[in-house]
């Protein structure tokens, strides 16, 4: 299954994690961006599906919101007894564990629903061989993996 993390310059700069789930895209706004450090928990707020996984440009049309594909690749849900766990079932239970095979982010991550009436989640890196506190790709790798542009360079 495919995933993307889009960098979205709107009123506030934020990132949007998008996961392909069946024939749908499930999306979470991650205000501070993802981290490869397992000690760091990032707020993830569900948002409506808006644009394609690989979209770069101005969205919605006529606005000033700029979007680039910050990272993309495949993801696989964790397995239980040798079988991949159902993404929909895991999300409905409030915990999805998955492995990212991206260009900037790799390894195990999890989305954990906070006991909160506003349906907020935490995005966290699992402690594995890809975990590191020495690198912050949000800062050190700001450009699109598709076009090589910075989000500020997006034009209509």
Automatic annotation (TrEMBL):
Name of the protein this chain belongs to: DNA ligase
Domain of life: Bacteria
Pfam families: LigD_N
UniProt keyword annotations, A-Z: Ligase
Species for this entry: Microvenator marinus
UniProt lineage: Bacteria, Deltaproteobacteria, Bradymonadales, Microvenatoraceae, Microvenator
Biased composition (Polar residues): 134-144
Region (Disordered): 125-156
InterPro entries per the UniProt record, alphabetical: LigD_PE_domain
Presence of the UniProt keyword DNA-binding in the record: no
GO terms assigned for molecular function: ligase activity
Keyword field contains Protein transport: no
Signal sequence extent: none
């Amino acid at each position: 299954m495919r995933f993307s993390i889009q960098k979205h310059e709107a009123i506030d700069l934020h990132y949007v994690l998008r996961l392909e789930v069946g024939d749908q895209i499930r999306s979470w706004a991650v205000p501070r961006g993802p981290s490869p450090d397992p000690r760091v928990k990032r707020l993830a707020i569900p948002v409506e599906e808006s644009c394609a996984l690989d979209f770069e440009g101005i969205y919605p049309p006529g606005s000033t919101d700029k979007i680039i594909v910050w990272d993309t690749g495949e993801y696989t849900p964790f397995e239980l007894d040798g079988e991949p766990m159902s993404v929909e079932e895991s999300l409905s239970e409030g915990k999805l564990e998955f492995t990212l095979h991206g260009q900037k982010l790799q390894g195990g991550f999890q989305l954990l629903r906070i006991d909160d009436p506003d349906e907020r989640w935490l995005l966290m890196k699992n402690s594995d061989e890809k975990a590191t506190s020495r690198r912050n790709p949000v800062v050190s790798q700001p450009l699109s993996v598709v076009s090589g542009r910075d989000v500020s360079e997006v034009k209509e």
